[in-house]
Every structure is written in C-alpha cells, then in structure tokens.
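Support request, please re-run this one:
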Amino acid sequence: MNELKEKKLPTVLANAQFYFGKLTNGAYQELAMNDEGYFKAKRHGGSYFPIAELSQATKEQAYLALRLSLAVSMKKSHPFPIIMDDAFVHFDRSRLQQMINLVKELQKEHQFIYFTCHEDMQQAWPTAQIIHLANTERSVHS
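Re-run finished. Output below.
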C-alpha cells in the first residue's frame, strides 16, 4: 500500500483534480486528500469542503473524476474497458455536457461501455454501437 500511495497516488490525484475541474467547469480547482485519508474539494474562491458536504451531483463528479483517473493510470498494466451504468443520472444539463465532453476526450485512448435506460443518451454518441437488451423482468409465481 505504501508503494502504491507514494508512486501512483500523486498522479491519480493530479489527474482527478484536472478532471474534477473540467467536470465542475472550474468551480472547484482542487481535489485533495486530508491527513485522515478523506477527500476534500477546494472551491474556486479558496474554501475547502469535505466531499460529504457537497451536493449529490458534485460528489458524483468527484467520484467519477477519481474513478476515471485511476482507470487512466492503470491503462498500461491493466487495459480494461471503463464500464458505467447510468453514471450521470443526477446531473443537470450543464454537468451532463461536461461529463460527455470528458468521456469523448478519454475515449480516444480508452474503451467505454455505458449502460443506460435513457434513450436520449444516444444523441451524445450517434456513431456508437448500440446494443438493446431484452426486457428481463420476471415474476415469481407460487
């Protein structure tokens, strides 16, 4: 863990901070870990907030920034696809567009598999391969 913390964590945090800034359209300029190991976000004006105090959508932006940064850092050793399941449901139109922009940027180097029940997400990726899954609802009869 110490080796990972010393070697990987600084790069992962730097990229996560960069992604978080993009996702929040510059509202937050820093994503850092405090001495207790909890994440905090620095607002553009200089105020720090524990992640738990942020809105649900902003927390999810921070989580996605960290998750994407970790996946990017592992590409050479573990080139797996990035799988998301309706990861943007709490986002307003502006947040959604920032997320789409970041994914489009990252998809040049990474494969994304995105599950959704929202048909309007197709508009973001009109040339993506779409696979419609059958309705798998089952009822239990006694």
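The mean pLDDT is 85. The beta strands are 28-33, 39-43, 48-50, 82-85, 112-115.
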